[in-house]
Amino acid sequence: MYTTGSKLAATADLQDSGPSRLQRLRLIGPAFVAAIAYVDPGNVATNVTAGATYGYLLVWVIVVANLMACLVQYLSAKLGLVTGQSLPEALRDRMPRAGRLAYWAQAELVAVATDLAEVLGGAIALYLLFDLPLLAGGVVTGLVSTGLLAVQSRRGQRPFERVIIGLLAVIALGFIAGLFVTSPSVPDAVNGLVPQFAGADSVLLAAGMLGATVMPHAVYLHSALARDRHGRQEGEQRRRLLSATKYDVGVAMLVAGAVNLAMLLLAATALQGRETGGSLEGAHAAVGSTLGGTVALLFAVALLASGFASTAVGCYAGAVIMGGLLRRRIPLAVRRVITLIPALVMLAVGTDPTQALVVSQVVLSFGIPFALVPLVVLTSRRSVMGSCANRPVVIVAATLVTASIVTLNLVLIHLTATGAA
Predict the structure, then answer these.
(1) What is the CATH number of the domain that holds 25?
(2) Dist CA 144 CA 161 (whole Å)
(3) What does DSSP assign to residue 37?
(4) What is the pLDDT of residue 30?
């Protein structure tokens, strides 16, 4: 929740002629919470699968998706700072009741897919680390995420941000460590920057990677995080805060992008051509046999931190979506239990968890346009944003980002419908 104290602290950090590096460091946080969505277990599944199956072929997807994410997350934060509203709240005020309900339904479906990926990832990590049954691991993941949400509810946003940033550091260390043991091929990685596919299956995987990177719930959430941390600002204070927000988003997305790239490079270097069974368990075993038990342990710990942090952030985003669109709020603990049920059911019936992770990311990719199109439209309107409305070059870039994502999804639908995928 937004507090007067946090607003005063933010204002105090902006009193000078411009935000210094130290002041920017004090203001970072909201983008790092949103960045957890970019390194969740769905990312691990799709990036490891991409590297193990196609080597360096889809490096360009991660780079392009991360550049897209920088622009999208900044626009989301800007909307919250300038209007004092989250994206769901801004949509609520401009949609009829039937439209709000339909929009909320698709957003909740995306939230369920998000939670599915995150809980499954935590369950797999607990199995790898402690041989805990997947169903029990899903329950533990749900309980831990509830504890993380309690930090936000009882202590406020800043302590929650610090906990999430700490978990992000664990994730980064765990997935990047392997690259110090085995060095990726620089020429192959550079060649992977050239946009290309290798058949319909690679398009399907690319769509999953995109859905795992540009996350709809992160778009909805970031506008609320920025608003709640800093409040609505005007004039010179707003200009300085927007400048600091660019720094926040840039650093957070750089970290998330580096982690995602490390996942793919590690798989391309150590796992390509090795038998992984198409699962995270198989990938973990292959990492252990190739790079040693320490790297495999760090891999599993990073996956666990990813599951714990991302499921808490995802549940937080679901509360923002419901509260913004419907003016309905239920306790975060209750929401945690409700959204946990589908994942536990899938674990109970024996669904392949890694395959479910990859499919969930494809589902997420279809929810992206519903978040991006209104975000671009609203932030481009002077009636909404005033002098902070998007400039023509930003409008063009944001439109191209949205159009490319929609086009990729249409291609995916065609390939699936014709049986090519």
Answers:
(1) 1.20.1740.10
(2) 16
(3) G
(4) 92
